[in-house]
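Hey, weird one. I pasted the Halobacterial output domain-containing protein sequence into the form twice and got a warning about non-standard characters only the second time. First submission, copied straight from the form history:
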Amino acid sequence: MINREIRPAESVSEAVVQAVSTLEGCHPRALPSLYGVVNPDALNTLFRQDTERESGRTDLVSFRFSDSLVTVSADECIRVESTR
C-alpha cells in the first residue's frame, strides 16, 4: 500500500496513474487506460486543487484500476492498495 499527495503541478488523474505505476512497479504507459474505469476529467473536476474548498469537506472516491484499489480523498491524498 502507498499513500501519495497530489502535487500542485499535476492533475488528480495524473497522480493516480503515477501512484498505481509505482505500486505495481511498471511504467505508467504499461497500465490500462484510466478511461476504462473512471472519467479522468470528472475526477479532476471533483478534486480540483485551484478551487476553494468548503470547510470540513469529506469527498471520497474509490475505484479499481489495473491490479489496485485507488481511493482519492478531499485532502488531496491518494491511497493505492494491491488487489492481488
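That's the output from the first submission. The warning seems to come from a hidden character in my clipboard, not from the data itself. The CA atoms of residues 8 and 50 lie 9 Å apart.
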